[in-house]
Design a protein that fits this description.
alpha+beta, Endonuclease, Chain A, four-stranded mixed sheet, 4 strands, 14% strand, globular, endonuclease activity
Length: 147
Amino acid sequence: MHHDGRVPNLPTTSDVSARMSRQRSRDTGIEVALRRELHRLGLRYRVHRRPVRAVRREADVVFGPAKVAVFVDGCFWHGCPDHGTWPKRNSDFWRTKIESNQARDLNTDKVLAEAGWLAIRVWEHEDPATAAAKIHATVQSRRSPRT
């Protein structure tokens, strides 16, 4: 691991490299489906924004006034306890990469909480309608009452 927390690149097969380069990091199917459900429930939001300027990480969906940041986490990249896999090839590299992603996620959640924000994490395998309903309830509960 580099002194700044980045994991050094290790050689992978050209097959793995090609597959990884095709992975979408924005506007994935689950993100779009979740946003569609949130909109259907009457919520308005911003996408791919940094909730707190000091944190260089973008949330997938941001509700500014309610201070709620939604992150859609991929099962592989974030180590889903139900669907995450640990590759056999370059296993030390991948374990370090995934564990550093998990540590960064915890740090992001902590920094946002210290700034008054709530981070909600949605796994890519979750049903978008169910996730949207939970997010909707949370956003509504954190909105300031109108006077």
